[in-house]
Amino acid sequence: MTVRTMTTVSFADRVVLVTGGGRGLGAAYCREVARRGAAVVVADNGCDVDGNGSDPTPANDVVAEIVADGGRAVACVEDVSTEKGGQMAVELAEGEFGRLDAIVANSGNVFNAPVDDWPTERFESLLRHHLLGAFHVVRPGFEVMKRARYGRIVLVASAAGIFGQHGMLGYSTAKTGMLGLMNVLSLEGADFGIATNAIMPMARTRMADAVTGVGADDPDGSAFLDTLRQDQVAPVVAYLASEACTQTQTVFSAFMGRVAAVQIGISRGWTSPDGSLSAEDVAEHLPEILDTTGLLVPRTLYDEMGYVTSPESLPPK
After folding, report:
1. Residue 302 among the catalytic residues
2. Residue 136 has what pLDDT?
């Protein structure tokens, strides 16, 4: 029997900005936090999966749906991958609702090709729509949160970046960059009540269909993608964006009803007795270097330095 602890994750009097909120998981995030009382800025310029074009319809449709259900929402159809667009999204939240409490950086596009077939402009496009799309909203939003001494930031990463995936060079690189944002935002936000986490979601969306190439001629593939439901991810994002979440600098994996935490650590390694080493030393001691027994999980680069300079402080295996 599964025992569920009943608590209320509420967004009453909170304002949440969701980039890429017009379709797919982004729209699911908007609906979930709105259902829990949030006023929502649905930021989506309506570009296609390649990152081209614009269409205000998706963002406006999500807003209309939330308002029809008795919620509060406003659409921002600016391109948040630009400095101007990100600033305008944050200003819209403050202007319309008087505050900004949480940001879900979800916007992006997709392209799939072998490494040697990746055009430069495609690679740059992925970095712009994912990584800069987060940075240009988070930077002005972080300033607002510092003044309020409260904030929640959720950065949408991907297992394709952290663990790798064939054909996804630009996407994987951009999504792994979200972890760099998370680490610094977590450290700099700690004294201001700002918690920042990342999520690696899996769910069926138009981008997932585009990457996998699943179509009407592949019923088995389509049936599997249907098991990756958006309602298995949106509640996790809602928790991370809420006041109930005090965790920070953590990567969560969420799909098919499972929620897990990702740890990025270092092995205890091998240390040269006299501080000098050779390539032959590396080869000879490779088993010790690769041994993950007693894995260390530093929070900052200084933590790792401390493990080396003060080995007596290491926790026991």
Report:
1. no
2. 98
- Tell me how crowded residue 233 is: count the other CB atoms within 10 A of its CB: 26
Quote the radius of gyration of the chain (alpha carbons, Å).
21
pLDDT of amino acid 216: 55
Spatial contact of 29 and 18, defined as CB atoms under 8 Å apart: yes
Least confident of 168-172, 226-230, 232-236, 273-277: 226-230
| Average pLDDT, integer, range 130-150 | 98
**DSSP structure string for 60-101:** HHHHHHHHHTT-EEEEE-S-TTSHHHHHHHHHHHHHHHS---
Q: Are 206 and 23 in contact (CB under 8 A)?
A: yes
Tell which CATH architecture fits domain 15-262: 3-Layer(aba) Sandwich (3.40)
Angle at 11 between CA 67 and CA 154, to 5 degrees: 100
**Closest C-alpha among 257, 210, 261, 211 to residue 234:** 257
What residue segments make up the domains of the chain, in order of their start? Answer: 15-262, 265-317
Strand order in the sheet with 39-43: 72-76, 39-43, 15-19, 102-105, 151-156, 194-201, 251-255, 258-262
Rounded CA-CA distance 267/201 in Å is 27
**Which DSSP state fits 226?**
H
Q: What is the pTM of this model?
A: 0.91
pLDDT at 20: 96
Residue in 29, 150, 171, 307 annotated catalytic: 171
